[in-house]
Design brief:
Low-confidence stretches: none
Distance between the termini: 49 Å
Length: 49
């Protein structure tokens, strides 16, 4: 069963590298949480110029 797909509705999408094994839902959720936290940290504490 496929729960997510980057191609759904966008058949023109191309990838430069394919993986034989996709991350589990938990692994994907953890990575998204890490990315979100990093973005929020940068928004709350922008670098001094």
């Amino acid at each position: 069963m496929v729960r997510y797909s980057v191609l759904e509705g966008n058949e023109q999408l191309f990838a430069s590298k394919y993986k034989l094994v996709l991350p589990s839902e938990e692994e994907l959720r953890n990575e998204l949480d890490r990315e979100r936290a990093a973005l929020e940290e940068r928004l709350l504490d922008p670098p001094l110029r």
